Amino acid sequence: MTSSPTPGLTRFNALDDSAASAELHEVCASSAWVGKLLAQRPFASAESLFAANEAAMAELTAADLGEAMGGHAPIGRPKPGDPTSAREQRGMAGASEELKNELLELNLAYQEKFGHVFLICATGATGAFMRDAVKVRIGNSPEQEREIARGELVKINNIRLTRLAELAEEGE
Protein backbone atom coordinates (compact mmCIF):
# COMPACT_ATOMS: atom_id res chain seq x y z
CA MET A 1 0.00 0.00 0.00
CA THR A 2 1.40 3.39 -1.02
CA SER A 3 0.74 6.43 1.09
CA SER A 4 -0.44 9.72 -0.36
CA PRO A 5 1.80 12.78 -0.65
CA THR A 6 2.65 14.54 2.59
CA PRO A 7 2.13 18.32 2.83
CA GLY A 8 5.88 18.76 2.36
CA LEU A 9 5.93 16.53 -0.69
CA THR A 10 2.95 18.39 -2.15
CA ARG A 11 4.84 21.66 -1.57
CA PHE A 12 8.01 20.22 -3.15
CA ASN A 13 6.10 18.90 -6.19
CA ALA A 14 4.62 22.39 -6.76
CA LEU A 15 8.00 24.18 -6.79
CA ASP A 16 9.40 25.43 -10.07
CA ASP A 17 12.41 23.46 -11.34
CA SER A 18 14.93 26.02 -10.09
CA ALA A 19 13.60 25.99 -6.51
CA ALA A 20 13.19 22.19 -6.51
CA SER A 21 16.74 21.82 -7.85
CA ALA A 22 18.07 24.01 -5.03
CA GLU A 23 16.28 21.88 -2.42
CA LEU A 24 17.56 18.66 -3.97
CA HIS A 25 21.11 20.04 -4.03
CA GLU A 26 20.78 20.46 -0.24
CA VAL A 27 20.10 16.71 -0.10
CA CYS A 28 22.85 15.59 -2.51
CA ALA A 29 25.61 17.56 -4.24
CA SER A 30 25.51 15.44 -7.42
CA SER A 31 24.04 17.39 -10.34
CA ALA A 32 23.28 14.12 -12.15
CA TRP A 33 21.33 12.85 -9.13
CA VAL A 34 19.40 16.12 -8.89
CA GLY A 35 18.55 15.94 -12.60
CA LYS A 36 17.31 12.37 -12.31
CA LEU A 37 15.00 13.24 -9.40
CA LEU A 38 13.71 16.43 -11.04
CA ALA A 39 12.77 14.43 -14.13
CA GLN A 40 10.56 12.14 -12.02
CA ARG A 41 8.45 14.80 -10.33
CA PRO A 42 5.73 14.86 -9.17
CA PHE A 43 6.18 12.18 -6.53
CA ALA A 44 3.03 10.40 -5.37
CA SER A 45 4.49 9.45 -1.98
CA ALA A 46 7.61 9.55 0.15
CA GLU A 47 8.16 5.91 -0.84
CA SER A 48 8.29 6.86 -4.53
CA LEU A 49 10.78 9.61 -3.67
CA PHE A 50 12.99 7.09 -1.83
CA ALA A 51 12.76 4.65 -4.76
CA ALA A 52 13.80 7.43 -7.13
CA ASN A 53 16.76 8.20 -4.85
CA GLU A 54 17.90 4.59 -4.86
CA ALA A 55 17.52 4.24 -8.64
CA ALA A 56 19.36 7.51 -9.31
CA MET A 57 22.20 6.58 -6.97
CA ALA A 58 22.58 3.21 -8.71
CA GLU A 59 23.10 5.01 -12.03
CA LEU A 60 25.72 7.51 -10.88
CA THR A 61 29.16 7.28 -12.45
CA ALA A 62 32.35 7.40 -10.37
CA ALA A 63 32.63 11.13 -11.20
CA ASP A 64 29.01 11.72 -10.11
CA LEU A 65 29.70 9.87 -6.85
CA GLY A 66 32.77 12.02 -6.32
CA GLU A 67 30.63 15.13 -6.74
CA ALA A 68 28.07 13.73 -4.27
CA MET A 69 30.75 12.88 -1.70
CA GLY A 70 32.33 16.31 -2.14
CA GLY A 71 29.24 17.80 -0.51
CA HIS A 72 29.91 16.02 2.79
CA ALA A 73 32.06 17.23 5.65
CA PRO A 74 34.60 14.85 7.18
CA ILE A 75 33.33 12.92 10.20
CA GLY A 76 34.17 14.87 13.32
CA ARG A 77 34.28 18.20 11.48
CA PRO A 78 30.74 19.25 10.56
CA LYS A 79 30.47 22.23 8.21
CA PRO A 80 30.36 25.42 10.32
CA GLY A 81 26.91 26.98 10.26
CA ASP A 82 25.35 23.94 8.56
CA PRO A 83 22.57 22.56 10.78
CA THR A 84 22.20 19.42 8.64
CA SER A 85 25.90 18.55 9.01
CA ALA A 86 25.78 19.23 12.76
CA ARG A 87 22.59 17.17 13.22
CA GLU A 88 23.96 14.22 11.26
CA GLN A 89 27.23 14.21 13.19
CA ARG A 90 25.66 14.64 16.62
CA GLY A 91 27.19 11.31 17.72
CA MET A 92 30.61 12.98 17.78
CA ALA A 93 29.47 15.65 20.25
CA GLY A 94 30.37 13.61 23.35
CA ALA A 95 33.52 12.07 21.90
CA SER A 96 36.77 12.49 23.82
CA GLU A 97 39.56 14.60 22.34
CA GLU A 98 41.54 11.38 21.94
CA LEU A 99 38.76 9.83 19.84
CA LYS A 100 38.33 13.02 17.79
CA ASN A 101 42.07 13.13 17.08
CA GLU A 102 42.16 9.44 16.18
CA LEU A 103 39.23 9.91 13.81
CA LEU A 104 40.93 12.93 12.24
CA GLU A 105 44.07 10.87 11.55
CA LEU A 106 42.01 7.99 10.15
CA ASN A 107 39.99 10.40 7.98
CA LEU A 108 43.20 11.85 6.54
CA ALA A 109 44.64 8.40 5.82
CA TYR A 110 41.34 7.32 4.24
CA GLN A 111 41.15 10.45 2.10
CA GLU A 112 44.74 10.00 0.97
CA LYS A 113 44.03 6.40 -0.08
CA PHE A 114 40.64 6.92 -1.74
CA GLY A 115 40.66 10.59 -2.77
CA HIS A 116 37.42 11.47 -0.99
CA VAL A 117 36.01 11.84 2.51
CA PHE A 118 35.08 8.79 4.53
CA LEU A 119 31.35 8.58 4.02
CA ILE A 120 29.06 6.89 6.50
CA CYS A 121 25.48 7.51 7.52
CA ALA A 122 26.40 9.13 10.82
CA THR A 123 22.85 9.75 12.04
CA GLY A 124 22.52 7.89 15.33
CA ALA A 125 26.09 6.53 15.19
CA THR A 126 28.61 7.04 17.99
CA GLY A 127 32.12 8.31 17.45
CA ALA A 128 33.51 4.90 18.40
CA PHE A 129 31.27 3.16 15.85
CA MET A 130 32.43 5.52 13.10
CA ARG A 131 36.09 5.11 14.10
CA ASP A 132 35.75 1.33 13.99
CA ALA A 133 34.04 1.53 10.60
CA VAL A 134 36.80 3.61 9.02
CA LYS A 135 39.41 1.22 10.45
CA VAL A 136 37.70 -1.68 8.69
CA ARG A 137 36.84 0.12 5.47
CA ILE A 138 40.32 1.57 4.89
CA GLY A 139 41.37 -1.96 3.95
CA ASN A 140 38.89 -2.09 1.06
CA SER A 141 39.75 -1.69 -2.61
CA PRO A 142 38.71 1.61 -4.24
CA GLU A 143 35.94 -0.24 -6.12
CA GLN A 144 34.57 -1.85 -2.95
CA GLU A 145 34.71 1.45 -1.12
CA ARG A 146 32.95 3.33 -3.92
CA GLU A 147 30.02 0.88 -3.74
CA ILE A 148 29.87 1.06 0.07
CA ALA A 149 29.88 4.86 -0.15
CA ARG A 150 27.08 4.67 -2.75
CA GLY A 151 24.98 2.67 -0.25
CA GLU A 152 25.76 5.14 2.54
CA LEU A 153 24.69 8.00 0.28
CA VAL A 154 21.35 6.28 -0.33
CA LYS A 155 20.79 6.14 3.45
CA ILE A 156 21.90 9.75 4.01
CA ASN A 157 19.76 11.01 1.13
CA ASN A 158 16.71 9.11 2.41
CA ILE A 159 17.07 10.78 5.81
CA ARG A 160 17.37 14.18 4.16
CA LEU A 161 14.50 13.44 1.75
CA THR A 162 12.32 12.47 4.72
CA ARG A 163 12.86 15.94 6.13
CA LEU A 164 12.10 17.50 2.75
CA ALA A 165 8.88 15.47 2.44
CA GLU A 166 7.80 16.45 5.96
CA LEU A 167 8.41 20.19 5.67
CA ALA A 168 5.09 21.88 5.02
CA GLU A 169 6.63 25.34 4.63
CA GLU A 170 10.03 26.41 3.37
CA GLY A 171 12.39 27.13 6.26
CA GLU A 172 10.71 24.81 8.79
**H and E order:** HHHHHHHHH
Percent of residues in helices comes to 55-70%
Q: Would you tell me the overall average pLDDT?
A: 88
Q: What's the alpha carbon Rg, rounded to whole Å?
A: 17 Å
Determine the N-to-C terminus distance: 28 Å
Q: Enumerate the spans where pLDDT stays under 50 for 5 or more consecutive residues.
A: none
Helix tally equals: 9
Describe this structure in words.
- The chain is an all-alpha fold.
- The protein contains nine helices and no strands.
- Helix 3 packs across helix 4, helix 4 packs antiparallel against helix 9 and helix 7 runs parallel beside helix 8.
- The relative contact order is 0.16.
What key attributes describe this structure?
single chain; mainly alpha; 9 helices; globular
Q: Would you kindly provide a brief summary of this structure?
A:
The protein is mostly helical. The protein contains 9 helices and no strands. Helix 7 (97-114) packs parallel to helix 8.
